Amino acid sequence: MNPSLSFLSLLSLLLLFSSALSFQSDELPFNDDDEFEGLRSSPGSASVAPPVRRRPDLDISSASDSKSLQFSLEHSLGDSEFSVAGTFTARLKSWTHGAQTLTKLRFTRNAISDTEKGLFERLLEDDDFYTIRIPSNVLNPSGKDYVVSSVRARCLPRESLDEHFVIHTDGVNVLSVNYGSAGGCQYPRPLKSPSKWSFSSYTVLKNSEQAPRTPTFVEQIIASENALEEGLQPPEKSFWAKYWMYILPIGFVLVNAMAQAANAAAEDQNQGGQPSQRAPAVRRR
Amino acid sequence: MEARFLLGFLLLLSLSSFAFAIYEDQVGLADWHKRYIGKVKHAVFHTQKTGRRRVVVSTEENAIASLDLRTGDILWRHVLGKNDAVDQIGLSLGKYVLTLSSQGSVLRAWNLPDGQMVWETDLQISNPSNSFLHVLGNVKSGRDSLSLVCNGGSIRAVSSIDGLVVWKKDLSVDGLKLKHVFQPPESDTIYAIGFIDSSLIALYHINAKTGELLKHATQASSVDLSSEISAISSDSLVALDTSRSNLLLIKFMAGTITNHKLPLSDIVQDFSGLAELIPTKSNDIFVVKTPSNVAFIKVKGDNEIELIGKADEAGIVSDSLILSEEEQAFAVVHHSNNAISFQVRINGREALTEGIKIEDHRGHVKRVFLNNYVRTDKSHGFRALIVMEDESLLLMQQGEVVWSREDGLASISDAVVAELPVEKEGGVSVVEVEHTLLEWLKGHMLKLKGTLMLSTPDDMAAIQAMHLKSTERNKMTRDHNGFRKLIIVLTQSGKVYALHTGDGRIVWAHLLTPLLQSESCPSPSVLTLRNWRVPHRKALQENPSILLVGRCGAGPESHGFLFIVDSYSGKVLETQILDHSIAEVVPLPLADSSEQKLHLVIDDKLNAHLYPRGSDALEVFVREMANMYYYKVENAKEVIKGYAFKKGCSTGSSAYCFGTRELWSVVFPSDSERIVATARRKINEVVHTQAKIMTNQDVMYKYISKNILFVATVSPKAAGGIGSAAPDEAWLVAYLIDTVTGRILHRVTHQGAQGPVHAVVSENWVVYHYFNLRAHRYEMTVIEIYDQSRADNKDVMKLVLGKHNLTAPITSYSRPEIATKSQSYFFTHSVKAIAVTTTARGITSKQILIGTIGDQVLALDKWYLDPRQTANPSQEEKEEGIIPLTDTLPIIPQSYVTHTRQVGDLRGIMSFPANLESTTHVFSYGIDLFYTRIAPSRTYDSLTDEFSYVLLLITVVVLIVAILVTWAMSQKKDLQEKWR
């Protein structure tokens, strides 16, 4: 291929891709408006909570009362019985309209005992489940119902054992707890032991989102009709945006023609001047 | 300018799919519609000398229909609502059909010839109970006749002409249940007899014209009275006691009641067990049915009774039919193997016995309705309407089955699709070819005439008929496009039918439960059916088969059974009575070496039993067991639990039995939420692409997981019907739950919304329908789920260099980074069923199939429900075909796939792919069946039937000729050039 031609086509290719290469924000649209208390708790050390961002709609009805309550996390390693593994502390807020909600969740893990460590190593070897549970009604933890969650033990170890709780609540009821590793868990799961036998925990409390109201468009439709009557034109596009599809092929054709002309000229020169070393590009009968 | 023109053209092109509908002459080409009535429970014959002979029936499916007695065709039919069960039907004035429904609270009159409703009366009964209708023939107030409706202790007299309540009498006696009302001929007094608390007999004399209570009397009974009675004459009736072994003869002459106890063992020898009274009309004869025989008993004089006839085997006895003043006939039907013996007894003596052969797939006789006619020799002839175990309806006359109706198909409970056999090579006879050639030529001549507009109306009709019965679509072989398939359906009665998609005919039908009936399996009932073996690469030569799973008893702990049935013939390949119960059947996406699909049967103790039993099946399962999960929605406890499987089960040591361990649970607070609907993706759904290009050239990755479960809960107060809760007390919470880890992926609350909720999940979206109390309208919401963890893969260079995570295995244990987009719309209709189209490769755009309140199926394009919509879409968005956001989903009349048909009492819609990507089969069922093929994005991958192959051929020929000519010309010119 003629070098000038190939260069030009590369250029046009680049042009085509330029739209794909233009700046794209890769920011994660993180619209978690729930109270997030990501906190690292290592056994024994007191945890410090970051400032709590409150939802504006909750601020309207001021809290009349708030008291602290505790409920425990229980875990089961493999098929063993459930045993207490940590304590959640939360504040119970009572709103003037009677509802109660949990806020300011904190979590402290108990230290891992040697037997637990042994059991956990067994779990890692068997790629078995590590199961946790918390009472579904935190006001009355003696109730029979627990929300249970499990994870493959091999998903947890990193530096230490990284765990991530998402507790879905509805008022004072715990609907479900999602338990898992803090980040991803690759598959197939390799066997690896944590360098530090302690849990580092992150907890998130989640409430239900409110669905937006179904929009009604009567006014807007009227408005848009008015706009139509006024003959509002859409904003004009740039010259290039409008006619690129015509310009591009014409450019190609031009480039082609130029290349051919150049070739022909070169051939003429060759025929007129010194004998050519190269075979002519096109042989004509 | 041109660009705008091009744009407009493109828009027009995309809009053209809006207007996709079939033409009038295309109706019936790809679709069929079958009407049924359901299992008949009452029948009234109307065989007057003039007019059509017909029978009016009411059914368990709450349908009222008038059938032609000669052919069995439906003359008219009405389907009452689900909560409007028909209690009784009757004829009035010889031209109205009266129906009493909703536990005796609604009385309606229908015009007999055409089924128009004449009037409807709400009887305003406070405590509906067993009530009965009695049409008085001779209360002559003008031309009117009264219909009496008795309910507990109250009587209402309704005018037959206009349905007005003429009078109302509340006897206001606690515990009174009126049992019988009659009126002696030429009398203005009505006698009403009832029982008070099963120990007292009460008699009331009521003025028929005013409802005034003239007289009443009570008398203690010597036995405990059951509710079964039989009126035997104008002044006496027979009742059965609660032990069902003694009869009580009650006489009520001149306002006094006498009763006399008669032990049944005195009348019928070797009597044992429980007796049953067959309702009779009069003539001093009554019929008692005992487990071993049927006795015809006559009352003579004072308290004397005599056995006048006996039918030995226990058969099915019809109601009595009055032939004349003295004569009364009964039909007794016995069933043995594949024949039934039909016996008519007049006054207890045998008058007629016929043996009739019937197909053995109909099971036993369940009900008989007898009717008589006058033969040519002026003697009595009898015909009978027989309801069989499979809910089919037969008319029997002169020892023959005159017609039969497969009304079991009105109660389909489950359906699967099976392939037809592969066409065999060769074996077509010359005659057949010649015949078809002639037909083909004829057909083409006709078509040509049609296209040239030379055809007469007769020709047009012939073309239409040809279209309709084109043999191609009814062949019993597999076709290239996958249009011909078998729909295998299971009905409530446990009968399995195979229907051909071409014309809806029944290919085979089998009632399998009688095969099992034994001591170990007393009352088998089929629960569900699944594909057991699907033709696949390795198993192309093997016949496909289906699995039927059922229970031997009523309770959830009773043993299960399974059948494996050949899909082509309906032959039973394997029968097995299981040693465990059945709670759920979970089909696995695995198959053993002979391509039998693996199924897990979960029993009531949460053990999982693997089928088929075979070492290779076990091997396949154990290899994948670590990645198998099971979830269970416990509606009663408002809990969803997830389980993993482990070796060894709690009940036995079988290698095929696995235990479960609880992995996760979601507990909905019972004081604020009730589970009302769950939905999940179809297990065999194909998704074509995981990427979705946004308008700004951005790529979003769909979160495609087979484990998404949609759950909708409502507040307990709003769990009732619409109107049971105020908007402030009602809310609906929609959840998306991962069924492997129990993770709640998304949770959203709709304030002021309530059920009924219907939902469908497909690809990465869910669409659900509910009622918005604030807006007083139905609403539909779409939620689309996108995977953010893959969002980085937008970079082309990364894709080229392979630095992407698109091929990495996905595990549910990774914390998903998902984003949801959602939008709500108002929707005009309430919904009975909802489904989504599925195509072979998932490329074709989707349509949501909505079963509307009008019993029609509406195909709504998914892109009407697009969360990307905005009120004022930009130019790019318009180019992509995103329509402006509207608050209400449009309903375009042409998008009803059922066109003008109705699928009575629509219950389910099923969509299954054809081989052709553009086309999908839609099968909807209720009391009626409707099948059609639809192409959600038009048939872009095949030519339509109207495509002119001739034109194409001519064009090709012309082109070839032109090429040849020009070639010759150029040759010639070349030659001339060279000569020059």
From TrEMBL, chain A:
One Pfam family recorded for the sequence: ECM10
Protein topology in the membrane: Single-pass type I membrane protein
Disordered: annotated span: 34-54, 265-285
Name of the protein this chain belongs to: ER membrane protein complex subunit 10
Low complexity bias: start-end ranges: 41-51
Superkingdom of source: Eukaryota
Family as reported in the entry's similarity comment: Belongs to the EMC10 family.
Record keywords: Endoplasmic reticulum, Membrane, Signal, Transmembrane, Transmembrane helix
Span of the signal peptide: 1-22
Subcellular location: Endoplasmic reticulum membrane
GO cellular component: endoplasmic reticulum membrane
Automatic annotation (TrEMBL), chain B:
UniProt-annotated location(s): Endoplasmic reticulum membrane
Bilayer-spanning residue ranges: 947-970
Membrane topology of this protein: Single-pass type I membrane protein
Limits of the ER membrane protein complex subunit 1 C-terminal domain: 762-979
GO biological process: protein folding in endoplasmic reticulum
Domain EMC1 first beta-propeller, first and last residues per copy: 21-407
GO cellular component, one term: EMC complex
SUPFAM superfamilies for the chain: Quinoprotein alcohol dehydrogenase-like (SSF50998)
Signal peptide: 1-21
One family name in Pfam for this protein: EMC1_C
Keyword terms, alphabetized: Endoplasmic reticulum, Glycoprotein, Membrane, Signal, Transmembrane, Transmembrane helix
PANTHER family: ER MEMBRANE PROTEIN COMPLEX SUBUNIT 1
Subunit record text: Component of the ER membrane protein complex (EMC).
Similarity comment: family membership: Belongs to the EMC1 family.
Protein name, as recorded: ER membrane protein complex subunit 1
